[in-house]
Amino acid sequence: MSDSLRLFFALPLPEAALETLVAAQARAKAVASRLSPRWTKTEQMHVTLKFLGQLPGNALPRLEEILATRAAAAQPFDATLSQVTAFGGRRARVLVVELATESPVLAALATGLDEDAAALGVARETRPFRAHVTLARFKHPGDARAVIDAAEVAPVPVSCGELRLYRSELTPSGSRYTPVAARALG
Known about the structure:
Blueprint: E1 4-11, H1 15-29, E2 37-39, E3 47-56, H2 60-73, E4 77-87, E5 92-100, H3 105-119, E6 132-142, H4 145-151, E7 156-160, E8 162-171, E9 174-184
Antiparallel strand pairs: 1-3, 1-8, 2-6, 4-5, 4-7, 5-6, 8-9
């Protein structure tokens, strides 16, 4: 396989979490139109741990090794869908629900994957890791306080027990994510 692939490592979400996120989106839709949101489809929701960008297809075997090694070294953990917020400050561009956990596993996975990707020539993350699920991206960035308030969620427990490598394909209707490989944690 020699073609270039757009890839990332992420955690999938259980059905109960997805139901909560879809309900939050529905509430947000009532007040978000002025920001021209592009809503994340339910089947596309996940927690990105490391975006890899475009890599040659021949990097796939090494990425699958990284996936297997990191997943085997990490134990399943519990987290919580905690709060709705927006990235971008006063000119919010992305509506998200943050994932909170007291377990060190989540941060260790993100850090380890960042280190492994750097060894393949992928740029290191410059911003601190913030675990989140994207609900929408705004075409017209702006004040999202009303949208955040409308979308607010009660804390929802999330069991994290699998690590995946996804392919991201850009299409006119938005990104399409396809799992390439998956491993259970532990």
